Amino acid sequence: MNRKVTIPRPGEGKRGPDGHLGYLVRQANVAVRAAMERALADLDATPAQFAVLTMIVAYPGVSGAALARLTFLTPQTINVIVRNLEKGGAIQKSADAVHGRILRLQATAKGQALLKRCRVRVMEVEDRIAGLAGKDDDKIVRRWLAAVAEALGGR
What is the residue extent of each domain of the chain? Predict the structure, then answer.
């Protein structure tokens, strides 16, 4: 049998409210990432670089290993991103005072300025997401997402 299968658009069929919850979360994640990529493209920043820079500013002196856990990226990917951010002058590394092999990461003034520009773009995406729910529903969704991560994430 050679019949054409019509793939539903997001929000339809199994890609809509009747779909599997895990699939719907993944579908939303992919859509948010794509929107962030478009929003950050002309700043020469990626969503992963934005996440890394956000965490370095939030947790000054964070190590690469902790950064990998915070951003859900592999240590290898973190190394590439850190190398590129450092080469671009956005961050700097320094040896840990006690454990010299551990490198501590700090954002430079240039990195903080880049993060500020990126945040404006990312907030536009987040405002679009938040606008899909009312203010009360937005709080519920945020609590639910955090609870899912807590219940299933392990760390």
Answer: 13-153
